[in-house]
Amino acid sequence: MPLQYDPEWHALAGPKLKAQGEVLPLHDVETRRLRYEQLFVSSTYTFPDNIEVNVHDTPPAEDGHQVQMYQVSKKDGRKAGEQTPAVLHIHGGGFISVHAKDVLPSLVSYVVESGIPFFSVDYRWAPEHPFPAPVEDCFKALQYLHSQADTLGIDPSRIAVMGESAGGGIAAGLAILARDRHISPPLAKQILLYPMLDDRTVTDASGGLAVFSVNDVITGWTAYVGDDRGTDKVSPAASPARVTDVTGLPPLYLDVGQLDLFLGEDVDYAYKFLNAGIQTELHVYPGVIHAFQRWAHSSHVVKQAFVNRLRAIVTLAQ
């Protein structure tokens, strides 16, 4: 039987899928930026009264660049002197687009339900700032959380990194850098949602049902690693699927839709952790595509994915 969309999800997502339009040409970064902006940006969202947003800037790097982070937390969410877990969040956007402020609404439910603050990194985009700039921006953000832990009221031993799509790939790369650079205390967990992990992916096994296309994948990776894409010159910190030894990496939560181009690379990545004896939770959701929660918020599969992701976050507080 051929692959097919989850019926309930597709009934809700169908109109948006039709509006997505044609597959864009290779390396058309600017048109993709406009398309992704339409998918992510909301001009009507109002934050709940019990949520506050604060902005933090890291100290200037050698080139003068300061990394900005948006902290989303519950008002009066902790007692005086208490240190809470924290999530360092890295948004998606194909390595080439989306600002952290645009994805903050998607983080609110996690913060409300868990009570754990999120710090979303506004990293620089490729191709203007290719690898290693985006992952190094996120590394600077992690260092900031460590150095300012007392001021922020967070426990540096209970910091997770979480990312979606390209942000999931950067998050996995950050976990590799943090291990190799001996960040102490180490990251407590990595939570990767349909992560973009392998610059060598050039095929679509979805039977033509995927929406994030091979052209999109090649465009993103070329922007991020340039002409090295697909060669052995690419670092595992850029393309985490290339890592050969996962020893010392933090416990892994990973989920992906079965109609996602990243299915194979994501499942293979999770198996590396399973085979290494690292605590791993893997979910594959039949009948849904890349970033499936953005297309049909009220579907059962999206609600179930939220429950599983929230549980992975809440374990930081246990």
From TrEMBL:
GO molecular function, one term: monooxygenase activity
A Pfam family this chain is assigned to: Abhydrolase_3
Keywords from the named record: Hydrolase, Monooxygenase, Oxidoreductase
Transcription keyword on record: no
Ranges of residues in domain Alpha/beta hydrolase fold-3: 87-293
Protein name: Arylesterase monooxygenase
The organism of origin for this protein: Fusarium albosuccineum
